[in-house]
Design goal:
By secondary structure, this protein is of the alpha/beta class. The chain has ten helices and ten strands. It has an eight-stranded parallel β-barrel, surrounded by four helices. A two-stranded antiparallel ribbon has the order 1-2.
């Protein structure tokens, strides 16, 4: 798979990246491992995770995957939205907690589900150290603020100083913002170092994505291309939507990482093949 250059060559990543927000939907460890290893087989080396995903489960699965293969991987994790502390420590409580959270979302469909956010420097240090333990790593390639908004508590100069300390200590290769394109733009304009690396949701607000690019801040990594577009679709209709959305992803993000997630190994094969074919057409 083609490698893309980020941050003027300071970071390299696979053209296609895999997101682990739904990895816990594979209930068995063997199923989760099969998904991650299929990604490696298809040349995917950029993996996106967060403490919230599966309340630590996704990070731990990546830790098992990366053991002995760390140099091959570009690992991006996040901080700011903590996992449930009890579910993350007691595996038997993990799935009941996740099921309850999903039920709340279904009941409040269409409403904004607010999660507690904490971007203070001390919270970042604790979150990063926990992530490194879960990932069985001494450093992560990228540390993102997880779905922040400019006025969330802790975003400011003290956090920037602490992030630079983490980078100087070798715990973090780069840091940036992952979330809504409007938030990415607002935070990058207010705190320029946080705009050095942007991972933007391409599926939530096309106008906000356009404003981000118009400001000269095209995101390095994009996600959410398929999520909303595929809601309620199946069969031939679904396949046509996948083709259309992936073509848009390649067009809008020609030199960065296109991030996706799935619960099926055959979908990994299909997505990688489609994006590689679209890239070849674009070059031609």
């Amino acid at each position: 798979m083609r490698q893309v250059s980020l941050l003027d060559g300071r970071l390299s990543a696979s053209r296609v990246g895999f997101g682990t927000s739904a990895l816990h939907h594979a209930w068995r460890a063997a199923g989760r491992a099969a998904l991650l290893h299929r990604c490696l087989d298809r040349g995917i080396t950029y993996f996106d995770t967060a403490p919230l995903y599966g309340h630590g489960l996704a990070e731990r699965e990546l830790g098992r995957l990366g053991f002995g293969r760390r140099r091959e991987l570009t690992l991006a994790t996040k901080f700011g939205i903590p996992p449930d502390p009890l579910a993350s420590r007691v595996p038997l409580l993990r799935y009941p907690t996740l099921a309850f959270g999903a039920a709340v979302v279904r009941v409040r469909r269409g409403a904004m589900i607010a999660r507690a956010r904490d971007f203070r420097a001390a919270a970042m240090r604790a979150s990063l150290d926990r992530s490194l333990r879960n990932l069985r790593a001494e450093h992560v390639s990228i540390l993102f603020l997880h779905d922040p908004w400019p006025d969330d508590p802790g975003i400011g100069d003290e956090l920037l100083v602490e992030l630079e300390r983490a980078r100087a200590a070798g715990k973090v290769g780069a840091f940036g913002v992952s979330g809504h394109p409007a938030a990415c733009l607002a935070i990058a304009q207010r705190y320029a170092p946080l705009g050095e690396l942007l991972q933007a949701d391409a599926g939530c607000d096309a106008a906000a994505s356009d404003r981000l690019r118009d400001a000269g801040l095209p995101p390095h990594i994009t996600f959410g291309h398929l999520r909303a577009a595929l809601a309620g679709e199946s069969g031939a209709e679904r396949s046509a939507t996948v083709r259309r959305q992936l073509a848009r992803a390649v067009r809008d993000n020609p030199q960065g990482v296109v991030l996706f997630s799935t619960r099926r190994t055959d979908c990994i094969d299909d997505t990688v093949a489609r994006i590689e074919a679209l890239d070849q057409v674009a070059v031609a």
